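Note to self: keep these together.
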Amino acid sequence: LFIMYLRALFPAQFSAWVNHALIVVALATCGWTLLVPMRLAAAAVTSYEQLTLCLALYVVWGMGRVLLYGQARDLQTARFIAMGTLLLVLSAANDILNNNVVIKTFISEHYGMFAFIFCQAFVLAVNNARARVRAERLAEELDQKNATLSRLDQMKDEFLANTSHELRTDRKST
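Structure:
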């Protein structure tokens, strides 16, 4: 699901076929876990963790592409999303390596999740502020255009009144 989220944000940098393949693998893993005895499911955890580490590398690669090839107008947003995503992925990789006694550190995924959510909230706040500024600017433009239209309408009314008066005055004199 996380890759689906990233692909929705950055479709040019995350492959559709990889997205579909990961959905199939996730469904197969869920089915395996639910249908087989617990000892067999537990034996598959290491394989699933290895797949997760490969997925982490793919996410790092994709976020690098976002930062290198992303559109200039979205670059600030992309940087914050990339920072939160990378912190989450690195903390998940740290926890997997720590649980398998490859490295000796501390459990950090909750910190990574906090950083990810914080970065997402920051992006939402910035986008909300931009939208408000744009809405205010558009409202000012609309007020100016309405004032211009009101002046033009008043000028039209004056012109029609003057023209009507002139036409009536010319008829009376003849």
